[in-house]
Amino acid sequence: MKLISWNIDSINAALTSESARAVLSRNVLETLKGEDADVIAIQETKLPVTGPSAKHMEKLAEYFPGYSVEWVSSEPPARKGYAGTMMLVKEGISYEKSVPQIGAPDTMDQEGRLLTLEFDGFYFVNVYTPNAGDGLKRLPERQQWDELYGDYLKSLDAKKPVIACGDFNVAHKEIDLANPASNHQSAGFTDQEREGFTNLLAKGFVDTFRYVHGDVKDIYSWWGQRIKTSKINNSGWRIDYFLVSDRIKDQVSKSEMIDSGERQDHTPIVLEVEI
User: Fold this and answer.
1) What confidence tier does 275 reach under pLDDT thresholds 50, 70, 90?
2) b or e along 165-191 (b: 16 or more beta carbons within 10 Å of the residue's beta carbon)?
């Protein structure tokens, strides 16, 4: 199977805006269209509780004809139009959808951060992990999330293999960001978040990019938008991942980034696995 994951940072903006950034986003969608993936997982949709509009569905069908669309959005008491995840599944592939709640703190379970599809031979989990926030104000809740999410994946893994993807909002090792020395107190690279990711892998999962490519450097999945030269200078972070159950790691043939051109923020990632 060929699977793609991308934090789109607002589906509405990508599909309907005429801003320069929206045009770059649509260029990425054109690239993904050409990838002909079996499933596309999207994070940070920022849709209302009612989900994609008729116009959104029409536009998605132009890029991905014949795909079914599954989604979950932020709902009260969580913030409106916040977070959210989506899956696009190629016609003819059977699955069952679930929207798990893991007992997360604050409003995290209501923010549309988890979407799971069960296929015949595996589970596919799409996650948009909560950010620790400015001043690390949400770090304690983030730590709880990491533990609960890991337990959730482990519970699925007891039944059948798991593939988990998404924006995990953490650079695991120093080689996963361009400037580790100056970021040890930054959200996404604190010792606590890195340890949380280590603990997640220890529950029986593999970071497929590192498994395939080893300790290759200078390959990232996110470049900050606030610094205009971040992508030109490749001052990025690798915070988007495909994880798989340890027992299927040798079935992975490809795990890499997809070129998003001039667009900063997240780039899509792709996994090919025999399953």
Assistant:
1) very high
2) bbbbbbbbeeebbbeeeebeebbbbbe
**pLDDT given at position 226:** 86
Q: Is 156 left (phi over 0), alpha (psi -120 to 50) or beta?
A: alpha
The per-residue pLDDT for range 197-208, each reduced to its tens digit, is 999 999 999 999
Neighbour tally for 27: CB within 10 Å: 14
Q: Please determine, for residue 22, whether its predicted confidence score (pLDDT) is greater than 90.
A: yes
**Contact (CB, 8 A) for 190 and 177:** no
Closest CA to 66 of 38, 42, 43: 38
Q: How far is CA 38 from CA 30, 57, 124, 169, in A?
A: 16, 18, 12, 25
- Token pair 């079996």 is found at 38
What is the tens place of the pLDDT at every residue in 192-241? 999 999 999 999 999 999 999 999 999 999 999 888 899 999 999 999 99
Cite the active site residues: 128, 167
- φ/ψ bin of 254: left (φ > 0), alpha (ψ from -120 to 50), beta (otherwise): beta
